[in-house]
Amino acid sequence: MKKVMAVLLGLIALASTSHGHDLQxxxxxxxxxxxxxxxxxxxYPAVHQGRLVVAGxxxxxxxxxxxxxxxxxxxxxxAHNRWTLGPNLPEGRHHAQLVSLNASLxxxxxxxxxxxxxxxxxxxxxxxxxGSLTWQRLGALPQxxxxxxxxxxxxxxxLVSGRSPRGEANAQWGDHQDVDxxxxxxxxQDQWQALPGGPEAKSSAAAFSxxxxxxxxxxxxxxxxxxxxxxxxxxxxxxWLKQKPLAFAQAAHGVGAVGAKNEWLCSxxxxxxxxxxxxxxxxxxxxxxxxxxxxxxxMPEPRHGLGVLSLDGHLYAIGGARQPGxxxxxxxxxxxxxxxxxxxx
Length: 345
Hints:
The protein is mainly beta. It has 1 helix and 28 strands.
């Protein structure tokens, strides 16, 4: 009964926010920028040296013979509204975490093609150093991991939640299970350490760190509905503290901050499976000083599997797909900004 009620409440929330374009009091404004050279979805990009960087991805527009996978490193320069290409990955992959640390880029896990199938979870840890033209393979993850969340806290890379093979089979998405793992990577030693687990086993969640505060937002469980749960990491104790839930459940979305002083924490895009499934277009946010989430505006082009990044007070929504699954992959890049100082919370 509780699960049925959760689904009903989620559908009510979706219905009540489906007219996002009619929200006149939104403090946010949208701008459409130069599209990606290669539109991709299922990406977890990074801000690196003042640029937005996307590694790999999945696309309905790429050949089936290559698994619809991209191995491209796509780099966006906000100062010139221009994309360039960097050194290619060793192979195409998707649902991998890209992280910037100490002037290097790290790509972690994700799905790759293998002899057994097209959705093989990887233990790879790759690094691209400044000025290098080749990605270097480092020590492997403790276990294969995909659809996780990654963030940097106090000079260390953290991974929380995701999907990993439930047994020996590792060829298709259904071979994997949701996990609540919390790992931390120490780059100097090239070593991973297991921390107390995350708050719940799930995948396709979103994580974001701001002012030494880290949030784990939404996600979903295998064969289950999207989640409204929000948790904050207490750096002192390492415990995940429950926060007020999202206004509506989200998964395959992204989270970031908007405003010069990070006035709003916003959750963008995603998809849902109920009532036939679809893509989410509502933008729900919470003021920095308040845990309450509210729908503020609607995406110009709703998408799931997109990348979301914050840079210089703006939030960027990168790529994704306009329909659930491997369909209608988009190269679109949108920027979200505060509309005026008077509109700030």
